[in-house]
Amino acid sequence: MSDSSRNADAFGASDASGASDADPKRGGGRVTAAPRFPGGPSPDPAGSHHERRIRSFQPRRSRVTTSQGDALRRLWPAWGLDIDGLRTLDLAELFGDEQGPRPDMPVVLEIGFGMGEATAQMAAADPDTGILAVDVHTPGQGNLLGLAERNGLDNVRVANGDAIILLREMLPAECLDGLRVYFPDPWPKARHHKRRLIQPEFLTLAAPSLKPGALLHCATDWEPYAEQMLEVLTEHPDFENTRADGGYAPRPDFRPRTRFEGQGLDKGHVVHDLLFRRVAPTTATAQD
Question: Which of 15, 84, 135, 185 is catalytic?
């Protein structure tokens, strides 16, 4: 499946910088121009103050359309945020409206959303749930903001940057009602498996931000990755399978089928959904 999202692993350099690859006046060295979208997503929101590590993403660049750029310029100050790792988010404030913060709104984190069509559909179908959608693909960010505006969706916020930093540095404990990871990059070569997002370390990092009972929902069309996801999730003490048989789940009605997923199904790909719940931490774990 050529899902443009290959979603959860689309974190890295985006189009927002407007950087030129070479400056002939400086011997071909790389220089950085002014941001293309002042007040919009930063090309490197966390800067260099976070450690280097193996990442599950690779940089992508593609053209930002006029409508996407317009949405970024106009809507980012209200509905967008950079993952800078320098503050703790107040989700009630982040999803607030003209009446003020919304402390009772449940919030789901979606890591990787591609062009945002499925995210917008889920937001429209469940307007009382906030979706914090994370990606670095600038065209997708602009597209999702535009979809939210056109469809009157005030329950979508778009975050730009590395979801690992968001989970580790910026989210308070037990603030999320769900976590969605749809069609992450499978990194099919064996030497790249360490780059896959769904690993024990990621689950350990994500668990504290999830409320007890929160739903972790993964989906993939790559059979070996599905098998790894199922094994890793089953063995992790912070999560339990919602399926009594310990296997994959049918696609739930709330997850829309994307056009890329349909193309993959037409080619004979099998899509696996995995639905696990956050286990309530034990007293000893909570004290740690």
Answer: 185
